[in-house]
Fold this protein.
Amino acid sequence: MGLDFAQMVPSIPYILKGIGVTLKIVALSGVIGFILAILLALCKISRFKVLTLLADFYTSLFRGTPLVLQLMIIFYGSPQILGGQLEPYIAAVLAFSLNSAAYISEVIRAGIQAVDKGQKEAAMALGIPYRAMMKDVILPQAIKNILPALVNEFITLTKESAIVTVIGVQDIMRRSYVVGSDLYSFFEPILFAGLIFYVMVMILTVIGKWIERRLSAND
């Protein structure tokens, strides 16, 4: 096959530096997306029909179009829309946050609706305001029930983050492509990048299973 992994050994530290870039994008996008998802989920179960329709439209829009399309629209469209070019890193975080919010909001909505109605009725009987009830009673129980699903969404976000290479972010994939260009041999560095992603996903999977066991033990 003519493979020569030895030639890329000096470039391994350069590729590994992309892990930090990838994790920063994923972590920041995950946090922002989670906050937005909570707001969307609350809108979806709101008594105000307008909020429900807007939240549903948002979700259908971001779930119904490719993530790479959303990323490219935000990055390449920013000069026309905002009057200036967004930094690739900012565009990536923005795109992933908005996209993950759409998916996570459905998970949170399902988690809220799965909470025993008696909890809500008891809180109302005690005169607890709606905002306090959601914050202190309903949401904590819902989040506990959907933690495994949230971990799965985070894993998916980690894998999908590889598409930031299309806008030039120096992540794992971009760095492996640069190494391939220098060596005139792409298979080895790209395969190495794939191995890095696999290890990262396996670590997150183990964490997810550990969380599930802890939650099962506490039930």
Notes: Residues 5-218 form a domain with the MetI-like fold fold (CATH 1.10.3720.10). Residues 72 and 150 are 26 Å apart (CA to CA).
